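Morning. Coffee machine broken again, so started the prediction first thing and wrote up yesterday's gels while waiting. Chain of 222 residues, entered below exactly as on the submission form.
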Amino acid sequence: MLRDARLVVGKDLRLEWRSRVTISQLLPFALLVLVLFAFALDPDREILAEATPGLFWLAVLFSTLLAIQRAFAVETVDGIVDALRLSGLDPAGIFLGKAAGIALHLLVVEVALGVGVTVMYGTSPSGPLLLVCTALAATAGLAAAGSLYGVLAAGLRVRDTLLPILWLPVVAPVLLAATEAFAAAYDQASGAGWRWCGLLAAFALLYSLIGIFAFEPLLEES
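Came back before lunch.
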């Protein structure tokens, strides 16, 4: 399973290296979302500082949608889904590889967003370790759920509009927990933040286990 996952994530990373989608599309989009939030709320730095955790994860959430749609649009348009079904690869390995590829793209976006909120909103965290652990756990949960629902919507003509409807309610707890953990890190209340981080890890594990067992029938139907 892990060997097949390495093959799939290697394929996705090579496609990214050739297309530069993360650099040319995801990063500009995520940073533009931060700028629009700044204009929509208020130029007052105090308001932006209070809203930083929520705005950060909303930008990540929107970027994740683009990353998921891109990851599975390539497979569908080029007929790679059929090739994956016939390749003999472990479906669980395919799931883990797709999730890992999406997670790596998101981590790059999150680093850029972290710099963006520091520069534009004038905020800096007091608990960097909590911030890093929260980002890793939340990213794993978003990527696992995104891979699961991405393959579910991949074979549908209305996948671009159906995916947000299916995926957003499922990852709403991840958004809430990640925002609370980030707020604790920025407010020097890391004790409460670690509890939210643990909840994020539980969600990531749950979504990953569901994906490992449910990806095969979804892949066959896509």
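The chain has a mean pLDDT of 83. Going to sketch it on the whiteboard this afternoon.
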